[in-house]
Amino acid sequence: MSKKSNSKGAAFERRVRDMFRESWGVQLERTPQSGGWGRSQTKGDLVSPTNTRFPYFVECKNQQQWNLWGTLFESQGELLNWWDKACKQAKEEGGKVPLVIVGQDYQPPLVLLKPTLRCHGIPQAFIISNDNKTLCLMRLIDFLKNYQS
Q1: What is the mean pLDDT of residues 115-121?
Q2: For the domain that residue 13 is a member of, what is the CATH number?
């Protein structure tokens, strides 16, 4: 991973962290040595050091080339790979609820999560169902407005 893409990923993680802070007031921090370079024991990209009851495992991906088409219609692609990895790591982190937050240049961040009844009430939430997975994809801002506990 290049230094430029590392910086871009860190900036995206800070942007997502700030959105959670502003919307929910939760103090999230970037995982120490996040971005794959470090050997931190904590998995995920954002953690809440002050709120151990924060229920989410947050994985952030900011890549220009991820393939939404492959996820929607071909049961393949980066989103599903990231989802599978996040589910595995969330389980290892005590069974937290996995969230994969994805970004592309000049687009609002999106969040991928397991569907709940709340997904069905959000006009711009999309249910993705293929093979053995059913997931919900929506803008992060809509998630933050509708999922605060």
Answers
A1: 83
A2: 3.40.1350
Convert the pLDDT of each residue in 83-102 to its tens digit. 999 999 999 988 899 999 99
d(CA 117, CA 76): 25
What is the DSSP track for the chain? Answer: --HHHHHHHHHHHHHHHHHHHHHH----EEPTTTTTTS--SS-SSEE-SS-TT--EEEEEEE-TT--HHHHHHSS-SHHHHHHHHHHHHHHHTTSPEEEEEEE-TTS--EEEE---HHHHT-TT-EEEEETTEEEEEEEHHHHHHH---
What is the pTM (predicted TM-score) of this model? 0.85
Q: Which domain holds residue 106?
A: 3-146
What value does the mean pLDDT take over residues 18-42?
A: 74
